[in-house]
Design brief:
917 residues; mainly beta; 5 domains; 6-stranded mixed sheet; elongated
Length: 917
């Protein structure tokens, strides 16, 4: 048996809820009973319990009668103490300005209908309407009877006689009990057809409905139900009202539900108030709101942790929650929670110890009342608990994966955690199985609502089971563990939360990143360059958007040196063969300023000038390697590809009217609008390929004959620039770019994914560089470190415009000798795609060594000749393609005899093609 929040009618639209978590709440509590009856579908007779009708639990009775005015004032005290404890004293109930009506100690406002009228059995379509009617009827009768000034209060709570429909036992003999509910403005508008419930001098637009008690066994008929099912110790099945009350008030003050509001399944389990945690400790010890709720409510601040740090996390309550960024939208919140009421002693350990001595499982209520230090007032209500984490199933770190994009998209509809695969707030369960919210078949456990193994601590047996490679070592949470630190999209964060020790009031944890330099990422940096400004081999970082700064690499200490007039700037390095200068063009379109900085134990202005007659900043600056000269470039994007060994010197550019031009060839890809080009020799054959991105973010790679490189084009929603260099220590270069989600993508030379790295969306990819003889990728916020630097012979495109002087020139100094021996073509690398071809053209791809001409003869399956293509080959030692239009040929299998020839010889191969119409 376990308590579960009813999924019926628990619907809140935050757009209609006043966010009141920063102001003490003034509550008006109304006691409502019903026309008396003995209906079997409801618990009780419609009247409040004013005397104890059972004696089985004695002093261990939860929320005992009489349920008079004083009793409900005690419930307000319990609520106040709870919220003051979990909010660090920043929020609670204003008890002096809160009231319970009627003022007569034992009276109630009696409604004309019976309890079952407001929640009729087998009539689900009426449930929401009747529950709103109950709320409205209660307000109207209270106003008519006592002329209450409702405007003095922040929240109306209707307490009705009887119990609620909030808990599921193994039976439900009273299905017409009324569910506890937050009534929101939309519900009132829908069913009252007015701008609220008219209470004389104000309109009531939301409120709460609660029962007088959640303790079913205060009613003799419920005791009989338990005992008929063989349950003798009914005192174990008592629940307090505080948990449900606190959870519904959470909704009222703007804390969103964190369970699946569509299906009623758990989202964060027993670890937080806004889900199953409201029922912890039999509803007497509701869990505090989770770290995200407390930050959301401004009861706690976050402290951003930048790897590499060793941090100490104190157990709640604390004024700061540790935050570790994954990217712009996603991050981890870390909190240390302990459920001990004495050192290393919790409720379950006491119950186990008693059972081991007596063979009898003690009543949990007896432990709560006698052992943990709760305070019960004169009404027998538990009004204070020393620590509301005592009701948790265990102790250790809770690691929350927060995705603000999911939260933003779903918070207004209260569906933050409605998709179990992509939750806005997801507990990283240390046991490896993310099973909170999923149906469980476990006999003696409830993993679907959370268990001790979900918490992070040394010695967690389920962590060791699923991460057996780490068994015996301090547990850690990284990109290779189960669960892992990757983003929801699967990008690798390389975050490592390691050296997690045993559960303790103070737990140390090492936070690092396996791929970044120490101190990164840092979203405040805005890195521009990582360069050797003096020529002494020591590189510095230059950064900033409006205020420029510089720093050494190993320990980021910003030395600010200039405040720019605008944040819209163009940058270039110049005179790099002598003493490097940093040049900035800054300002508004009608008043531009160009500043030259030189380094002399720090950056100083060398000289500056004002320029008033150039267009708005839509181009780039090009520097010089030998002087201070700077060109302001406005032309279409153009690059230059040079092979100094072969003498090849060819350009590629994007015309204004679309397509692309390489050398003196006619424009190609006329139907494609490109936004950016760069270049690299992908296969190290001495011929440079063009890398191009169209306006839809598709990445192309083609040679100087416009033949696509193997594996391209690629749909990745690419954001320029496209950088390339051998950074992984293999033979071929890698392609590096940023996608529209901000992730850094690394492909090999055939377009296969090597890395997908998490990164801030606003952190632009800046450059590929070198540090301590290692290859690095630099964004505005991060420096990633990869394999050892190997010679590239100029085969790299390291910045947006190739290099620090924005030359847009790639120059390699090697050629590749023919590798085919006496062969004219590489038959293994000659093929047809797509194959089969459907209603279109087939492309025959040939890897040519030295053939000058090619002939294609096409035969059908019966061997009859059907077509012929002849062409000159203008690519040596590289890929070359030609198309065959199969549109007018019947479906079937075709054989293509491909013959390659030069002046002295020829060779042939047979290719097979399927055609389907």
């Amino acid at each position: 048996m376990y308590g579960r929040i009813s999924k019926i009618l628990i619907i809140v639209l935050l757009a209609t809820v006043s966010l009141l978590y920063g102001t003490d709440l003034k509550i008006l509590a109304l006691r409502i009973d019903f026309k008396a009856d003995n209906h079997e579908g409801t618990t009780g007779n419609g009247k409040f319990l004013l005397s104890n009708q059972i004696s089985d639990c004695g002093i261990y009775t939860v929320d005992p009668p009489p349920h008079d005015k004083s009793y409900f004032e005690s419930q307000l005290k319990a609520l106040d103490n709870y919220y003051r404890a979990v909010s660090n004293g920043q929020f609670g109930v204003d008890l002096e300005k809160s009231d319970v009506f009627p003022t007569n100690p034992i009276s109630a406002y009696t409604l004309a209908d019976t309890m079952s009228y407001y929640h009729p059995f087998s009539n689900d379509t009426k449930h929401e309407e009747r529950i709103v009617q109950l709320f409205s009827d209660a307000i109207i009768v209270a106003y008519q009877t006592d002329n209450i000034n409702f405007s003095q209060y922040d929240l109306v709570v209707v307490f009705h006689a009887g119990v609620s429909q909030d808990f599921i036992f193994d039976f439900d003999s009273t299905p017409e009990d009324i569910p506890s509910t937050f009534i929101d403005y939309q519900m009132i508008r829908k069913h009252i057809d007015d701008d609220g419930i008219d209470a004389g001098n104000t309109y009531i637009k939301n409120g709460i409905i609660l029962p007088e008690t959640q303790n079913h066994i205060l009613f003799p008929e419920m005791v009989d139900e338990f005992q008929e099912r063989g349950i003798q110790n009914v005192c174990n099945y008592q629940y307090g009202l505080t948990g449900t009350f606190a959870m519904l008030v959470g909704q009222a003050i703007g804390l969103p539900p964190l369970w699946n509001t569509d299906k009623g399944e758990s989202g964060i389990g027993v670890f937080g108030l806004m889900d199953q945690g409201s029922n912890n400790g039999q509803g007497l010890i509701p869990a505090p709101p989770i770290a995200w709720n407390r930050v959301f409510s401004e009861w706690e601040e976050t402290e951003n942790i930048i790897p590499d740090e060793i941090v100490e996390i104190e157990s709640r309550p604390t004024v700061k929650t540790l935050k570790v960024d994954i990217d712009d939208d996603e991050y981890f919140l870390l909190e240390n929670r302990t459920n001990w009421f004495r050192t290393n002693v919790d409720i379950d350990s006491v119950r186990r110890a008693i059972y081991n001595k007596t063979d009898t499982i003690p009543n949990i209520i007896e432990i709560i009342f006698d052992s943990i230090g709760v305070v019960r007032d004169e009404n027998g209500v538990v009004v204070s608990v020393p620590d509301y984490d005592i009701g948790l199933p265990g102790s250790g770190l809770l690691i929350w994966h927060i995705d603000e994009s999911i939260i933003l998209d779903n918070i207004q509809l209260n569906s933050i955690n409605n998709d179990p695969k992509f939750k806005g707030i997801d507990l990283e369960e240390a046991g490896g199985a993310q099973d909170i919210g999923y149906v469980s078949t476990a006999l003696f456990r409830e993993p679907s609502i959370g268990e001790p193994f979900d918490m992070w601590y040394q010695g967690n047996p389920e962590y060791d089971e699923v991460n057996s490679n780490n068994k015996g070592n301090p547990i850690e949470f990284n990109s290779m563990t189960y669960p892992n630190t990757n983003s929801n999209a699967g990008a690798i964060s390389n975050l490592n939360l390691g050296n997690i020790g045993y559960a303790s009031d103070k737990m140390q944890i090492t936070i690092s990143n396996d791929l970044t330099l120490s101190g990164f990422p840092d979203s405040s940096l805005h890195i521009l360059y990582h360069t050797d400004i003096t020529g002494d081999g020591s590189k510095v970082i230059i950064g900033g958007s409006k205020t420029l700064w510089w720093s050494g690499t190993d320990n980021i200490v910003k030395e600010e040196f200039y405040e720019l007039p605008s944040s819209d700037n163009l940058f270039v390095m110049t005179n790099i063969n002598n003493s490097k200068n940093l040049v900035v063009l800054s300002g508004e379109a009608d008043s531009l300023k160009m500043i030259w900085f030189e380094y002399n134990q720090g950056f100083v202005v060398k000289y500056d000038s004002t320029i008033n007659d150039i267009p708005k900043l839509t181009s780039y600056l090009a520097g010089s390697s030998t002087s201070d000269a700077v060109n302001i470039v406005h032309d279409a994007h153009e690059i230059f590809m040079i092979n100094s060994k072969s003498g090849l010197n060819i350009s590629a550019k994007i015309p204004f009217d679309g397509g692309i031009i390489i050398g003196d060839q006619p424009i190609a890809f006329n139907d494609v609008e490109f936004q950016y080009i760069s270049a690299i020799d992908l296969d190290l054959d001495g011929t440079i390929e063009v890398l191009a991105v169209d306006i839809d973010g598709k990445l192309f790679a083609f040679n100087q004959n416009f033949t696509s490189a193997t594996g391209f084009p690629i749909d990745e929603l690419v954001v320029p620039p496209i950088l390339a260099k051998n950074i992984l220590g293999d033979e071929k270069p890698e392609i590096v770019f940023q996608n529209i989600d901000g992730e850094i993508i690394i492909l090999n030379n055939t377009g296969e994914l090597q890395y997908r790295l998490t990164n801030y969306k606003v952190s632009k990819l800046r450059m590929l560089g070198e540090y301590m003889d290692r290859n690095i990728i630099i964004t505005e916020s991060t420096i990633w470190v990869f394999d050892k630097v190997v010679p590239t012979n100029g085969n790299e495109w390291s910045m947006y415009h190739h290099d620090e002087i924005n030359s847009n020139i790639i120059e390699i100094d090697y050629i590749k000798e023919q590798t085919g021996g006496t062969d004219l073509i590489n038959k293994k690398c000659t093929y047809i795609y797509p194959n089969p071809v459907r209603n279109g053209k087939a492309t025959i791809r040939v890897f040519n060594y030295s053939a000058e001409k090619i002939n294609l003869k096409i035969f059908d399956a019966a061997g009859y000749f059907v077509d012929e293509i002849q062409s000159n080959i203008d690519v040596n030692n590289g890929a070359w393609e030609i198309e065959w239009d199969a549109t007018n040929f019947e479906s079937g299998v075709y054989l293509i005899k491909l013959t390659a020839a030069d002046q002295d010889s020829e060779e042939s191969t047979i290719l097979k093609l399927g055609v389907i119409h």
